[in-house]
Here is the input.
Amino acid sequence: MHRRGSTGRRARFALGLAWLALAAIALADVRTPLGFSHGTFYLLALVIAAASGHRRALFPITLAASGLTLMGLVTSPAAPDAFPIGYVLGNRLVSIVMILVAGVLLHRQIGALDAVRTGRDELEQANEALARSTRLVAIAGATARIDGWSVDLLRQEVTWSDVVAEIHGTPHGHRPTIEEAIGFYHPDDQPTISAAFSACAEAGAPFDVELRLRPESHEGDVWVRATGRAVRDADGSVVTVEGAFQDVSDRKAIEAAARERDRHAHELANRLAQTLESISDAFFTLDRSWRFTYINPQGERLVQRSKEELIGVSVWEAFPDVVGSPFEANYRGAVDTGRATSFEAYFAPLETWFEVRAFPNRDGLAVYFQDVTLRRADQEHLRLLGVAVERLNDIVVITEGEALGPDGRPRVVYVNEAFERITGYAPEELLEHPRLLHGPDTDQAEIDRISAALEAWQPVRAELVKYGKDGRAIRLEIDVVPIANAEGRYTHVVAVERDVSERHALEEQVRRAQRLDSVGQLTGGVAHDFNNLLTVIGGNAEVLVEQLDEAPGQLRLATMISEAAARGAELTRALLAFARQQPLEPHATDVAGLVEGLQTLFERTLGEDVEIRIDTGEADVWPTFIDPHQLENSLLNLVLNARDAMPTGGRLTIELDNVVLDEVYAARNDDVAAGEYVMVAVSDTGTGIAPVALGRVFEPFYTTKAFGSGTGLGLPMVHGFIKQSRGHVSVYSEVGEGTTVRLYLPRYDGSTTSRDDAAGPADGRVATIGGRETILVVEDDPAVRSFAVDQLRALGYDVIEATGGAAALALLEDRPDVDLLFTDVVMPGGMSGKQLADEAVASRPALRVLFTSGYTEDAIVHHGRLDPGVDLLTKPYRRDDLARRVREVLDTDASPP
Here is the structure.
């Protein structure tokens, strides 16, 4: 390359010199008169140009020299006279011919020189390439440990290269014999090389074998590849065997490693196949055309197809319902993006949820899938359970099973929303301070019992009073259950705490109502017996009072007996009112008018120290269906209680209003039905009632007044009357502030008929006392019967008597002149007064009937109200009451009882 560069520079210099010479000669021609001889000087420029070796540059220089020579005829000074123009012209033409001939000859010479030069260059390049190839072969041979050898069969001499010598472990230049060369190989391979060499030497058969060298001459196995071919002389006889040796130990090691890898891969493939056949996951593979190439037994079971049905079949063809489903979208997405995907989807034909993991590869798609239907159902159950627990009205608390907290208590790990809703505490407050719900009424013994049960890992139920954030006591019924893990070790405790405060209050109300009802039943029975006694005592005392005008001492005693009997009668009426067993005679009543009409009475009762205010409201107060006389008594009772609660004076307010009690109120008070009511509220500014006494105000004989100041029957009588009238009573009181008693009376809708509307005097005549009619008296109590018979006879009536129903029917059959049947309601012997009256009126429709009773749990009174058309004289009664009622009934048109 260096020589070629310097030659180029010389050529360019010679070419430039040739042009310079050409210009100098032309200038001389123009300046000298000897122009005829200048033409030959241009040959110098051609020679210089030829020396540059540029054949193409020689032509323009030749043409330029010829042109300048010809131009010299004009530009050159005139020749001396001794040279005629013809000579000058001829000379110039000869010069031009010489220039052209020289140019052609020089062009050819340059071509010949170029050919020689090119041949030399090619030879040099060939030599260089040969040397380079030789070096490369040497390098390759050394690197690949390959080189040649030859065996001269005539001389039985082996010649091999240095590389081959190194392969065989011999010094460079060593020439072994054929037997020695064969002895370099492993004994097991010597027959192979010997036979191959013999066949090549004898028959000219080429060979290419791989052999192991003797193990003792090398560390590890050394493999060589030996190739050989025959070289023949002019006669065709094999005179030489030549070839090459190559150390192929590395390749053999690679092949052995590859075989080991293949074997290992085959084993892995077999194990993988066995694994895929036995794994619990279903598995299949698809090729690039979406055809099944494999499916394991679990896959066959889940898709309910055999591999014979699926292999080679497109997944879209085998399962048409997959098309357009999440399965297709995810499979195609995985293949298109080359990224694995996982998803869950429902396959309707199999009614199964599958969890799928798809892995794209160069062969297609590998898919693992599992049936997760049960797991999803469990998850849904857990979700629903979680939602239910969160929305549960009961508190749910979960703690760890072991005491890990700093205070030696188990750590709280979960509370539901009901905890904050019921207690007012945020869940984190419980997590930090688990004892914050305890208070003065929290039963430590009950807590100890719970702890003892949990230490034995036993479930336990308890009831505790805990406290909300606002200080409110909350009664909780608690079920605590220890929870074990799969190994059977108890790890957590679950407590379900339900607020039973309202239930407890309702149970207390029921117990109080049952207690009151029991007392009422007892009171009613006692009052019935007392009424019989009081009828006799009061009636006879009244007779004595009339007959002892001449004996003042005895008259005073009789009067005292009569007054005591009257007080006893009032007491029994109060007891019956409490027991809701007094017979009521309700009417459609204007409560506002009734209250306003009592204002004067209330004012006299309260005195001047108490201010009274009556507020009937702006709207018209609804009518109510009630016994007005008993309502008056109840209001008077409340006013008297208010007066006693304001010993130093105060203010009494009576308010009336129309109210609607809704279902919520009715649910909290089980003794009232939702609906429309007239409310009468009696409020005072007195001393009030203590909370401990407020729950007992409706109990008979319970009083907060001083001993001897009250019977304890006032509020119970009011309560019994209002409840008997299907109403409701509530009491609110604060100590030192006063008390409000609210009476709720059902609104009258006009659907109930009062006794005044159903029955009344036939002709409006004023009843007269006494008469001449015949009266049948039926009474099982001899004293009461005797009193009634004597009093009626004294009034002028013809009286016959019977002790029971059967005897009375017999008398009625014998005495058709009986005008009135006066019978007790409750009688022994199997026939009540109602049954007796029914049979008697059935046979004698004109017969009039008057009942008497001191107890209303009988057939003529229902829900505390007399049946329509029934006349009743309640016990105890006096002679005047008896005379008036008998006369009223006899003067009334007969009607069925």
Summary: The two ends are 154 Å apart (CA to CA). The domain at 392-499 is CATH 3.30.450.20 (Beta-Lactamase). The chain is about 50% helix and 20% strand.
